[in-house]
Amino acid sequence: MKELAINGGEPTSLKVLGYGHQDINEDDIKAVEDCLRGDYLTCGPATEAFEESIKAATGAKFVTAVANGTAALHVACLAAGIKPGDEVIVSPITFAASANCVRYCGATPVFADIDPKTWNIDPASIREKLSAKTKAIVAVDFGGVHVASDEIRKICDENGLTFIEDAAHAMGTFHNGRAVGAIADITTFSFHPVKTITTGEGGAVATNDPELGKMIELYAKHGITRNHDMMRETDQGGWYYEQLVLGYNYRISDIEASLGVSQMKRLDQFGSRRKELVAFYNEQFSKIPEVQFQMDASPEDTVRHLYCLKFDTEALGVNRRWIFDALRAENLGVNVHYLPVYLLPYYKDLGHGRGDCPNAEDYYDHCVTLPLHCGLSNEDAQLVVDAVTKVVEWCRANRGAK
Question: Which residue has the higher pLDDT, 351 or 237?
Answer without folding.
Answer: 351
